[in-house]
Design goal:
Helix content: 25-40%
Largest sheet: 5 strands, mixed
Distance between the termini: 35 Å
Structural class: alpha/beta
Shape: globular
Number of strands: 19
CATH superfamily of the domain at 7-142: Alpha-D-Glucose-1,6-Bisphosphate, subunit A, domain 3
Radius of gyration: 22 Å
CATH class of the domain at 7-142: Alpha Beta
CATH topology of the domain at 7-142: Alpha-D-Glucose-1,6-Bisphosphate, Chain A, domain 3
Number of helices: 15
Strand order of the largest sheet: 4-3-1-2-5
Length: about 450
């Protein structure tokens, strides 16, 4: 914000989106668009600007009256048959960022062909903007109907009756105190931290990964909570901590919910996972007899398969998980609540469930290293990686090399090492998962040394 993300540039995006809808996607037809926004600095202002441009171009607009999770925008599109939507949010990115998420008529993220088409309209026409357009901009709280829909997916009475202590870390995002409020009045004790607005996000990026969850890790170590659920800035991603403060990867969360949906809820369907997600998903799906699809990173790829076949659950390593018969979108709050429902239905603590899964399927260890990397070396790095560089695999054989999104080495025990460029930040990500913490850390270190050893 105040650099690339300015009023002027936002207005260009809004006009391009209006041109795309009125002149290309729905030429000659009136489009209805919903706009929501998060708690970042000036997000409400940017949302209002966007609505004024769309309205001035003849579109009918529903503008949120208060901050809302991105899934609330998706819900409104899908259930009220809007032609598209906009969420003003930078999601999990640092406090000084903001962004525009475009949503399609099914509530999912716009595919690349749509974002490319919108970009082609940049600067083609003068920005039309009328600060007050009578009858074109309706306003409403988008949270109420969305939260009722979310609650209907769950057995809230079972969750409320469970005698657990749960910590909710909203990371100063739009998750706020929603979970605490919907579970109030029962035996379960829910405590929310970082539930108030803070445009600096307490000095952290609102991404539920270990380095950003230090306040909750400290509470988990000393206060005896059974589970911590964390949601990101726009509440479409989830993270979790077990008693003692150990981070539970989103892939493990997906695997647990998969077991709950099949074994407790008696559902079935295929599973979708992105290339950087845990091998545990494959192990669990294999036991349950379910087909697994592996996609490039990005929930839009998960969503594409969800729209084409009966997908039970699909998700990303970054914490975005989608569910059968729900929305074509991630939902961090629902993910956390399904973990609580699993505990309540099984009458087991989160720790008991985790230990049982680790005993049956093995415990895997995950490491991710994000590094600034020179642009001029990136093509050379990936060309070299595809030629099978010699890493010390600690006695393991290289089983496969996958190149659908970056370069991924898969070992004979399901351990893996992945190199990938971020799609939202100018960094190189090196990921690994190993059968031991030492193996995962060693693979990442070797990958980093190799990347910086190129000249």
């Amino acid at each position: 914000m105040d650099k690339e993300f300015t009023d002027e540039n936002l207005l260009l995006v809004a006009q391009a989106y209006a041109d795309f809808l009125t002149k290309e996607a729905r030429a000659g037809k009136t489009s209805r668009v919903v706009i929501g926004y998060d708690l970042r600095r000036n997000s409400d202002h940017f949302a209002k600007l966007f609505s004024e441009v769309l309205a001035a171009n003849g579109l009918e607009v529903l503008l949120a009256t208060c901050p809302c999770p991105t899934p609330a925008v998706s819900y409104t599109i899908l259930k009220e048959k809007f032609n598209g939507g906009v969420a003003i949010t930078a999601s999990h990115n640092p406090p000084d960022y903001n962004g525009v998420k475009l949503k399609t008529d099914f509530g999912g993220s716009a595919e690349k062909n749509i974002t490319d088409a919108v970009e082609r309209w940049f600067g083609k026409n003068q920005v039309l903007r009328k600060p007050s357009v009578s009858g074109k901009v309706e306003t409403r709280d988008l949270n109420k109907r969305y939260l009722e829909y979310l609650k209907a997916y769950l057995d809230l009475s079972v969750i409320r009756s469970a005698p657990y202590r749960v910590l909710i870390d909203s990371m100063h995002g739009v998750g706020a105190r929603h979970i605490e409020e919907m579970l109030s009045g029962g035996k379960i004790q829910v405590t929310t931290v970082r539930g108030e607005r803070d445009v600096t996000f307490g000095g952290y990026a609102p991404e539920p990964i270990p380095k950003n969850l230090a306040p909750s890790v400290a509470l988990m170590k000393k206060d005896g909570y059974d589970l911590c659920v964390a949601t990101d800035g726009d509440a479409d991603r989830v993270g979790a901590l077990r008693p003692g403060g150990e981070f539970i990867s989103p892939g493990t969360i997906l695997s647990l919910i998969l077991l709950h949906m099949v074994q407790d809820m008696k559902k079935t369907g295929s599973v979708v996972t992105t290339v950087s997600n845990t091998a545990l998903i494959y192990r669990v799906a294999h036991k349950l007899g379910l087909k697994v699809h592996e996609t490039p990173i990005g929930f839009k790829y998960v969503c594409d398969i969800m729209r084409r076949e009966n997908v039970l659950i699909g998700g990303e390593e970054s914490g975005g998980i989608g569910f059968q018969n729900y929305l074509y979108e991630r939902d961090g709050m629902l993910s956390g609540l399904l973990l609580m429902e699993m505990m309540a239905v099984r009458k087991q603590s989160f720790e008991e469930i985790l230990r049982s899964v680790e005993k049956e399927f093995g415990k895997l260890f995950y490491v991710r290293n994000d590094i600034d990397y020179p642009n001029e070396l990136k093509p050379k790095l990936f060309a070299a990686l595809e030629k099978k560089p010699s890493f010390d695999l600690k006695g393991h054989a290289l089983k496969d090399i996958r190149t659908q999104d970056g370069v991924k080495y898969v070992l004979d025990d399901d351990s893996w090492l992945l190199f990938r460029l971020s799609g939202t930040e100018p960094i190189l990500r090196i990921y690994s998962e190993g059968s031991s913490q030492g193996l995962a850390e060693s693979l990442v270190k070797q990958g980093r040394d190799f990347a910086f050893g190129l000249s």
